[in-house]
Amino acid sequence: MPGPLELVRRLGSSVVDRVWRLGFATRFFFAILLHSGTALRRLSLTLREIYFSGVLSLLIIIVSGLFVGLVLGLQGYETLQRFGSTEALGVLVSLSLVRELGPVVAGLLFASRAGSSITAEIGLMKTTEQLKAMDMMAVNPIARVVAPRFWGGVISMPLLAAMFSAMGVFGGWLIGVVFIGVDDGAFWSQMQSSVDFRYDIMNGVIKSVVFGFAVSLIAVFEGYDSAPTAEGVSRAITRTVVTSAMTILALDFILTSFMFRGN
Amino acid sequence: MNRTVLDLWVGFFVALGLAAVLFLALKVGNLSSAHLSDTYVLQARFDNIGGLKVRGPVRSAGVLVGRIADIGFDPESYQAVVTMNIDGRYRFPRDTFASIYTAGLLGEQYIGLDVGGDDKMLQAGDMVRMTQSAVVLEKLLGQFLFNKAAEGQESK
């Protein structure tokens, strides 16, 4: 085929490929929902996955949350003092964490810490034909392997995001009040008067739940769909992290445009 | 890993997560203090609401007594109709004056309720009769300049 036509053909084939994978991922999602009974009935399976994706991510989430809060405290103070309104530091730190940074950064960290390991585990199970072996023994691998990991991720993610935000607020307080000397009472009371539970905090929690679903689905799907070779698994892990990051940021934009319009 | 240890860690994790949500709700957010229980509705018409926003505060004597629920436009009188949710614990006399104030120089705008001396109280759904619109800075400046110019003419 001549040069330009070949290019068009390649473009078409890559689009078709992507649409096909998207459809496959959607069917996979419904298959997980369909076979979630086992994951919920045999709770120990899901608990194990909460341990691996949630408890083991605690350290990175808490440390990153603290540092993000410290940086927000410093940068926020530096900017606010130009306008002589350093008491608003608490508002700035808490709103940016609760609305945006908490869910988004916790989601990105969760994707690279827990999502990648889920993909690696499932991909390696596929490579070593453990999934096929389960199928031979009439154990459905989606019910036994995929669904518990999916639900473990979905449950862990909002809790991790909440901890991230809480640690960030603590970090902002540490810098603002303890080190710089912003008034303690003004810091908390201004924060409380401008952070609304339903509008700000619940919308942040909804974001983190949506990200939890997205990252967990991407992680288990990429693992299940990986080529059963060493190279295939490594590519699947890369795709998990990259796709999760882009999905989180795109979803965040869409959710924000619906949630926070500022009327 | 031992089952009990694993359960312990997961329990610890979930408790910590819920504690974080609780901290955000009570300490960072306003779930503890400013929730207005059983509110009733008052309405007021303004010629100009300036930069008033939905969910903005309604204050009396500087204390938060309600929130703005809705801002509409009346096509017949060409006025803004502001609907307020007022805390059910507080009643206001019928000659209450509703004005739009600004908190600080650049702060948010809010509705201030200045209480009159009437014996009869406003009931749910009532309209606050006496209102004062927001001060529009451009108009104020325009008036000031106009007066200055007029003074200049007189002294000649």
UniProtKB/TrEMBL annotation, chain A:
<keyword id="KW-0997">Cell inner membrane</keyword>
<keyword id="KW-0812">Transmembrane</keyword>
<comment type="function">
    <text>Part of the ABC transporter complex MlaFEDB, which is involved in a phospholipid transport pathway that maintains lipid asymmetry in the outer membrane by retrograde trafficking of phospholipids from the outer membrane to the inner membrane. Probably responsible for the translocation of the substrate across the membrane.</text>
</comment>
<feature type="transmembrane region" description="Helical">
    <location>
        <begin position="201"/>
        <end position="224"/>
    </location>
</feature>
<feature type="transmembrane region" description="Helical">
    <location>
        <begin position="236"/>
        <end position="260"/>
    </location>
</feature>
<keyword id="KW-0472">Membrane</keyword>
<feature type="transmembrane region" description="Helical">
    <location>
        <begin position="159"/>
        <end position="181"/>
    </location>
</feature>
<comment type="similarity">
    <text>Belongs to the MlaE permease family.</text>
</comment>
<dbReference type="InterPro" id="IPR030802">
    <property type="entry name" value="Permease_MalE"/>
</dbReference>
<feature type="transmembrane region" description="Helical">
    <location>
        <begin position="50"/>
        <end position="77"/>
    </location>
</feature>
<protein>
    <recommendedName>
        <fullName>Intermembrane phospholipid transport system permease protein MlaE</fullName>
    </recommendedName>
</protein>
<dbReference type="Pfam" id="PF02405">
    <property type="entry name" value="MlaE"/>
</dbReference>
<dbReference type="InterPro" id="IPR003453">
    <property type="entry name" value="ABC_MlaE_roteobac"/>
</dbReference>
<keyword id="KW-1133">Transmembrane helix</keyword>
<feature type="transmembrane region" description="Helical">
    <location>
        <begin position="20"/>
        <end position="38"/>
    </location>
</feature>
<keyword id="KW-1003">Cell membrane</keyword>
<dbReference type="InterPro" id="IPR053408">
    <property type="entry name" value="MlaE_Permease"/>
</dbReference>
<comment type="subunit">
    <text>The complex is composed of two ATP-binding proteins (MlaF), two transmembrane proteins (MlaE), two cytoplasmic solute-binding proteins (MlaB) and six periplasmic solute-binding proteins (MlaD).</text>
</comment>
<keyword id="KW-0813">Transport</keyword>
UniProtKB/TrEMBL annotation, chain B:
<feature type="transmembrane region" description="Helical">
    <location>
        <begin position="6"/>
        <end position="26"/>
    </location>
</feature>
<feature type="domain" description="Mce/MlaD">
    <location>
        <begin position="39"/>
        <end position="116"/>
    </location>
</feature>
<dbReference type="InterPro" id="IPR003399">
    <property type="entry name" value="Mce/MlaD"/>
</dbReference>
<keyword id="KW-1133">Transmembrane helix</keyword>
<dbReference type="InterPro" id="IPR030970">
    <property type="entry name" value="ABC_MlaD"/>
</dbReference>
<keyword id="KW-0472">Membrane</keyword>
<keyword id="KW-0812">Transmembrane</keyword>
<dbReference type="Pfam" id="PF02470">
    <property type="entry name" value="MlaD"/>
</dbReference>
<protein>
    <submittedName>
        <fullName>Outer membrane lipid asymmetry maintenance protein MlaD</fullName>
    </submittedName>
</protein>
<dbReference type="InterPro" id="IPR052336">
    <property type="entry name" value="MlaD_Phospholipid_Transporter"/>
</dbReference>
